């Protein structure tokens, strides 16, 4: 297997080298109606992906492996260029983290997850294999436009599917650029076409067309509450990576320096655009001031009460109706900590990664899934009180929660109470996805529909083949 993997990597590197030397894109294959997978209409994109899926099913597993390796290598070797393009288009997040997310694509699992299971006995043999759905309709977010698309590609194509993507309009250019690069390199290496297609000018209407298209048996949606609800309302199976508001509890037994460092790493990552990112902290009173000081030593800048109030008034408007959600100022999403501080007349030291300050639970930064590098800290009487508040303000999304504690009883209690898909103890949020912790990564965490951290098996149908009375040779 090692020799095969090395041969595949060698072929892929040669193809990418030739494409880079030629520069730009050549003409799309004869008979193709798209621009290397970029189409003007949903119908065209679905038809091309359907033809591509039939071609994929007839191809060798080696060619499928080459396609996956091409996407990994493009993301890895062209990360600087593609990450900069994504930041320039979306204008949210941090360049270093845009680049790092693309490097992380090389660790996304592929065909190794697809292992045939066999049971043999007196009555013969039974095989369980993992079959594709066909063409998958995917909605990708602006927060991680190309990384989510590339991750979905590896997971879905590994299982024998192709995909049609409706990207967030504010991240459509980089998503289309990625599709063109992937498809051209894959075609040059294998002859396979349109393993991923994309709507060049995505709208709410094109998303709705994908939700209801007869040629798409499965939907995979990564995004906010609105698109998640729309996908769940579609009359077909949907795998939905929905919203989160991940809380952190810090108790009196915690390693305070490690807690502060972890909160900075997680909450500041890509300016808190991650759905798993630390959004609010509930710390017990006895170590609260100690934790606040430690945050400043690890790259945070503490705002005083007046400054927190100023930032809050800029970040949120009152609800339109009593009891409703505060309205988030979307122009502040994903901006650097220094930019947010500058908006309230505060100059922060160079290298400041995160703003933080003490609030109560009435501050909208606590209940709302804001995606900016400011984290509210709330005092708690004890660990039980912190867990109670964490449960309340996670809102039952079942997404992600974190605790910093050396008390195994407290850790166990929180894990049971929160019942979140991801539960991290004594580390940053990214540890749950293999970034500083064990396990594999993904950019789609399917919480509302229960699949959890997606992988190639997520996008398969289980098929059983039974031979009665034969093929058991023992």
From TrEMBL:
Keywords, in A-Z order: NAD, Oxidoreductase
Residue span(s) of domain Aldehyde dehydrogenase: 41-295
Any Pfam family hit: Aldedh
EC number: 1.2.1.76
One annotated GO molecular function: acetaldehyde dehydrogenase (acetylating) activity
UniProt-listed CDD domains: ALDH_EutE
Name of this protein: Succinate-semialdehyde dehydrogenase (Acetylating)
Source organism of the structure: Gimesia panareensis
Origin organism lineage: Bacteria, Pseudomonadati, Planctomycetota, Planctomycetia, Planctomycetales
